[in-house]
Specification:
Bound molecules: FE2/S2 (inorganic) cluster
Shape: globular
Number of domains: 1
Largest sheet: 5 strands, mixed
Strand order of the largest sheet: 2-1-5-3-4
Strand content: 25-35%
Number of strands: 5
CATH superfamily: Beta-grasp domain
CATH class: Alpha Beta
CATH topology: Ubiquitin-like (UB roll)
Structural class: mainly beta
């Protein structure tokens, strides 16, 4: 009996459109996954300070850094906001590449 290997997917949407997807790479950031999926997420500081890379988590889990970086706040996080340059996806994750409204 062979065990089926579980593969997780990171998918990128804009609204209802699926822009691209890639297999989860343990420990890589959302933005690194977006390169693999050939999807463009704007970045600037790449260190959690500017908020340029803010995306919306639709489902799944993306880490929120502790302490909270200047680019995020509690209200944004409650709306699903994550910073692509430092957020690490875990398991199957769906992301809208636009920040929450
Ligand atoms: S690129 Fe500045 S917070 Fe991510």
């Amino acid at each position: 009996m062979s065990e089926k290997k579980e593969v997780s997917l990171v998918r990128f949407f804009r609204g209802a459109n699926l822009l691209g997807q890639t297999i989860l790479q343990e420990g890589k950031t959302v933005v690194e996954h977006s390169y693999l999926a050939e999807v463009d997420i704007p970045t600037n500081c790449t260190s959690g300070n500017c908020g340029a890379c803010m995306v919306t988590l639709l489902s799944g889990e993306v880490s929120v850094p502790e302490p909270m970086p200047p680019g995020l706040d509690e209200d944004f996080i409650a709306d699903g906001a994550r910073l692509g340059c430092i957020g690490i996806p875990k398991g199957d994750v769906d992301i809208d590449i636009l920040p929450p409204l």
